[in-house]
């Protein structure tokens, strides 16, 4: 495995040579012939909400796919048998819906795409799995639904751990940092919202806390009634679970304006940067969250400039957190020696050593929760904003 420094140097070189590399590309998606990148093309699909209040999720997933593709292309293409295959990324906007994800899977199949980085919502994954299975499509997904992984879908993997893994440890750590006893969990009233909010609620109960759950309609524009309900319940802590970043930022701002002085959390994925843009750092005040990466670490600092050059966007916590899993997919394609046989690649993934120089040593989990051990669990962090000051991070180890 190459070091982060080597990877970044190669990515930078590829960006300079980008036009020349693109000129030798091909639209072929078969095993192809020849040994140059132009003779063999590996098409990777990626999908998620690329517009709307949850767009930071989808754009981050797309950026992850583009970055790992740039890493492979920086080495002249991905090594597959005796060939070097250029990696191309095709994106699809799901609208954060089940129907959108199913339509995306159908479009990918029409393009001969067999490997997908995504989707990322529980609802999206529910809609996509049956269609992907029909075409033997391998998904490196990140949906946190309670049925996200199933034995009947052996070609579905998780890029990173879900709240079953990290919600409990973060809650225990946060109890020592903030003095809260009464918790309100709120999220949209659909599968993507409910599945994560229910897990969070269960973990707060396990921690001995008084907790209640509330919902709101996805797509809500007027949050005044939601804010009023939250204020009436007088919680010490409000956890927004998997609510879209734009919604969370709006609710935080309005709650602070209405006089709420308690603690906020978001144990449903990291969109803290987008939330802060909407709410303002002063309104965040006391806030803790699941953070896939520590932005203060040397490895994260090293990768950020190359990430921006390769993708055109600033790295988010989730986009960086998905990189090791996306690399695992490409490395497993190399190990299996095929860009056609997804079952062979899946077998290689199951035995792959989950060690990455960005996040460290990972392990496979999921057997207890899903009945299938195909969720990649990497070391993660509790991010903390306290007194409106920039975030600090506490690392918690990957576990099963």
Question: What can you see in these coordinates?
Answer:
- By secondary structure, the protein is an alpha/beta fold.
- The protein folds into two domains: 224 residues, Response regulator (Rossmann fold); 144 residues, Response regulator (Rossmann fold).
- Helices cover 44% and strands 20% of the residues.
- The strands form four sheets. A seven-stranded mixed sheet has the order 8-7-9-10-11-16-17, sandwiched between helices. A six-stranded mixed sheet has the order 2-3-1-4-5-6, sandwiched between helices.
- The protein is globular and about 65 Å long.
- The chain starts with a helix and ends with a strand.
- The N terminus is likely disordered.
Q: What composes the largest sheet? A: 7 strands, mixed
CATH H-tier superfamily of the largest domain: Response regulator
Indicate the CATH topology of the largest domain: Rossmann fold
> Number of helical runs?
15
Average pLDDT score:
89
Estimated radius of gyration: 21 Å
Percent of residues in β-strands: 15-25%
- Overall 3D geometry? globular
Low-confidence segments = 1-6, 11-38
